[in-house]
Amino acid sequence: MTKKIETKDWTTKFVEKNAWAILMLIASLIYFVGGFFPSNDAKIEAMSDDISRIEQAILTISQNQEKIIILQEKQNTTDANIIEIKQDIREIKNALNIL
Hints:
By secondary structure, this protein is mainly alpha-helical. The chain has helices at about 10-15, 20-35, 40-99. The protein is rod-shaped.
């Protein structure tokens, strides 16, 4: 009877003997590294804050647009009043020239 000779390199033997320890080391590294990154709750909260800021910006923009429209209407009214005053001045000048 011949004896079978096993030819395993040192890495295979090491992994076979310490598989549980290697798995625990990998799990602890994943847990440790995961602590450096924000959790989903933190990401959701940050997104919620961003959305709130965007909503506030949109509200401010719409309010400013309303103010601009009001100012444009006032400008149009002022322009119309100026045109009326200029016409009145022309009429007065014409009336004075006739005299």
